[in-house]
Amino acid sequence: MQPNLSKRLFSSKLNEVCRQTISQIKEAGTYKSERVITSSQSTHITVNGKRVLNFCANNYLGLSDHSRIREAAKRTIDQYGFGMSSVRFICGTQDLHKNLEKRIAAFHKMEDCILYPSAFDANAGFFEAVLTPDDAIISDELNHASIIDGIRLSKAKRLRYKHLDLGDLEKNLKEAEGSRLKLIVTDGVFSMDGDIAPLTDIVKLAKQYGAFTFVDECHATGVIGKTGRGTPEYFGLEGQIDVINSTLGKAMGGGTGGYTAASKEVVDILRNKGRPYLFSNSIAPPVAGASLQAYQMLDENSSLLESLARNTKHFRTEMKKAGFTILGHEECPISPVLLGDARLASEFADEMMKEDIYVIGFSYPVVPTGKARIRVQLSAAHTPEDVQRAVNGFINIGRKKGIIGDAKL
Ligand SMILES: Cc1ncc(COP(=O)(O)O)c(C=O)c1O
């Protein structure tokens, strides 16, 4: 048989299988397509040739396109070049990477820090590297997909507690009795609901049952707490969380990269056994340089955090006044507007786009059936006028669709 022909046969069967799966995804209404942005990531972006106001990026501090971040990236390219072409332990570590790790460890008041290509990798690599079948992981059922995947890769006993349910957490802690290590795992901020884990009680239970705590701070670093140090700062628990995983890809410049901040011993294990660290490329020098700048900016003053808090309060207050149900914690810039019906959420988002306001609807299976919503994310870079425009858009369409009445306005 000609090699080309067998390749084509294989490829057409592969394509056929993919086509069938894709049509099932489309039938389920969960097919994903991308809107292409032809500008920088900012509060105003160009999508499909149209200038729109952006409320769906994790650009909480507005640093993705900030002049200081751009300049830091350019300077770093001039000094350190573009890429590393190597994993860290072979020849992929510059003083830049070490400085960033030191800065992040100090930021989270931890002993050490290890960088990964992404926070997904930091979560995927942690559990397998640190825990054994003698240990137990007790995880909030709504933790991020990367935590779920990371836990699947480990051989530790896996227990799941109901979302934010301390009673169920305690029940699982009892079930984990006898394990060598017990690790409670939670997102600090949950990205679909904008709610915050009850860390004070979680730490109390951890102490009571001799467990350790792991918090994913991807939506909290640079967002929550007086100086942006996340949920441990918000609850006055800095230094009391054992492991913090977070990202460089959201508030802190929005480039790429993630990390684990923890004790020297934990980080040492990860440098020796964390597979996404050992077998994947270093983060690019300009990303490391610009991320360093982001942490420095947050240390200098809290003006960006204050703008973010002002915008969050503005949006949440005005939307509630208009009669909408806004989910999540009142200080969280993730502000999901609950609509219930999946089609309504999707049509609502399309109507908002017609008003040049870019928001996204989420429905099952990303969120439970009947809890479809539009997730609005505020940024420090939005002006009060931008926020009011979004509120007005919601009110206009909400009235048209009969979701809110005039009486409530
Ligand atoms: C809670 C949480 N953890 C981890 C990640 C992964 O972050 P990264 O984009 O750095 O891989 C995300 C990103 O969506 C997230 O929301």
Automatic annotation (TrEMBL):
Its EC number is 2.3.1.29. Gene3D superfamilies: Aspartate Aminotransferase, domain 1, Type I PLP-dependent aspartate aminotransferase-like (Major domain). Keywords: Acyltransferase, Ligase, Pyridoxal phosphate, Transferase. It comes from the Eukaryota. GO terms for biological process: L-threonine catabolic process. Belongs to the class-II pyridoxal-phosphate-dependent aminotransferase family. This is 2-amino-3-ketobutyrate coenzyme A ligase, mitochondrial. The lineage of its organism: Eukaryota, Sar, Alveolata, Ciliophora, Intramacronucleata. The gene is Contig4719.g5037.
